[in-house]
Amino acid sequence: MLKSTFKLPKIGQKTRHLFASKVSITHIRELRSTPEYNKRFFSFSSSRCQESMNRIAIGQLCSSSSLEQNLGVVKTLIDQALARDAKVIFFPEATDYISRSASHSMALVEESPGFVKKLQRAIRELCTKHQKQIDVSIGVHLPATSSDKSQHDTRLRNCLLYISHDGEIRQEYQKLHLFDVEVPNGPILKESQAVQPGRTIPDVLDTPVGRLGSAICFDVRFPELALKLRTNGAEILCFPSAFTMKTGEAHWQLLACARALDTQCYVVMPGQQGEHDVGVDPNKPGESPVKRVSWGHSMVVDPWGRVIATADPTNNQPQLIVADLDLEAQEKIRRNMPLWDQRRRDVFGDFV
Fold first, then answer.
1. Which of 159, 217, 238, 265 is catalytic?
2. What CATH number did the domain enclosing 305 receive?
3. What domain range is 93 assigned to?
4. How far, in whole angstroms, is CA 211 from its chain's centroid?
5. Is 238 noted as a catalytic residue in this protein?
6. Is 70 within a domain?
7. Does any domain span residue 210?
8. Residue 57, Cβ neighbours under 10 Å: how many?
9. pLDDT tens for the chain, residues 1 to 352
10. Is 39 inside any structural domain?
11. CA 318 vs CA 8, 20, 121, 130, 162: distances in Å
């Protein structure tokens, strides 16, 4: 049987963009790979090459406080992902809305169930239109459950939904780690003021592109969650986010690559991008608008810790980032560097 070598393209080629309905499509940003690297970790049978490639897309956007407006952008991105033959599209944290305050978020969350229902219907309609199938991973807010309210906890839930091509919600993951930060003589950020933390690790899902382990934003800083998801069978990890500019510049790519190397998984990083239109408080006339800005730089990292696709940071429009995941190459990396066989469970226990 013929042998072929998996080749990653050369670095430095300009990313091309296609514009439709004011949404740009960013093709795979191409990277250099050394012959020795390819030979050792990416050589495989040519007959298996095509079937092991799985196309995904990231829908990067700048959500506002208008759920209807955000839904329109989401539908456009799904439409374009279907045209590009993606099997799953990943959206950022809080795609349904970005608020200006905890109280504003508590008011807006009542509209979120309607946003989700409209999205479920749109997915079915778009799949019918294209005669193709696509699943959707999307970050939304959801109101407190009846059980929560019976415990006198009315805080909303920061959730990641996995919706199949037929509109069925297959998974609802609630963010475990909340972004609570107090900087001396600086900002105080308390996500827990309006959001209740999750309590369970999500199941690893079988998807059209591989076995998926999901988390949200701040979760990426806690490697034990990623390690547990890998132990449970994940091939792909997803961290939809709304990183601040400061933390994004310092840590976004570093964290993505670290989790990829820790777990030998593909890591998908959908990010909110740009300055969000959150409106002004009608009860505070004359007050300056709250400024909310997110880092963006959505990307996909392979199991060798290499960025294989990324958004164009100079483009302020919604973007579709497309990447092909090669599970055969991933299997070879894991086989050649068998980290899970070498873990010292006799020393550290079975927490991963």
1. 217
2. 3.60.110.10
3. 22-31+51-280+287-338
4. 15
5. no
6. yes
7. yes
8. 30
9. 434 343 443 433 333 333 333 456 654 444 434 445 445 554 433 333 444 479 999 999 999 999 999 999 999 999 999 999 999 999 999 999 999 999 999 999 999 999 999 999 999 999 999 999 999 999 999 999 999 999 999 999 999 999 999 999 999 999 999 999 988 877 788 999 999 999 999 999 999 999 999 999 999 999 999 999 999 999 999 999 999 999 999 999 999 999 999 999 999 999 999 999 999 988 887 778 889 999 999 999 999 999 999 999 999 999 999 999 999 999 999 999 999 999 999 999 876 6
10. no
11. 26, 11, 22, 21, 21
Domain tally, the chain: 1
Q: Is residue 229 part of a domain?
A: yes
User: Quick one: the chain helix, strand, coil %, rounded to 5?
Assistant: 35, 25, 40
Q: What is the DSSP letter of 313?
A: T
How far is Cα 215 from Cα 217, in angstroms, rounded to an integer?
A: 7
Taking the C-alpha atoms of residue 348 and residue 335, their distance in angstroms, rounded to an integer, is 23
Give the amino acid at 3: K
- The torsion defined by the Cα of 329, 57, 195 and 228, in degrees rounded to 10, comes to -10
Judge whether 153 and 144 are in contact, CB under 8 Å. Answer: yes
Of 219, 211, 212, residue with least CA distance to 195: 219
Q: Is 93 a catalytic residue?
A: yes
Q: DSSP assignment, residue 84?
A: T
Active-site position among 93, 159, 228, 235: 93
175 annotated active-site: yes
Q: How far apart are CA 4 and CA 111, in angstroms?
A: 52
Torsion of CA 164, 85, 119, 317, to 10 degrees: 140
Q: Which of 175, 191, 238, 332 is catalytic?
A: 175
Do 22 and 62 touch, CB atoms closer than 8 A?
no
- Quote the radius of gyration of the chain (alpha carbons, Å): 20
CA distances from 186 to 182, 183, 217, 309 (A): 7, 5, 22, 35
> 13: how many CB neighbours lie within 10 A of its CB?
12
**SS3 for 192?**
helix
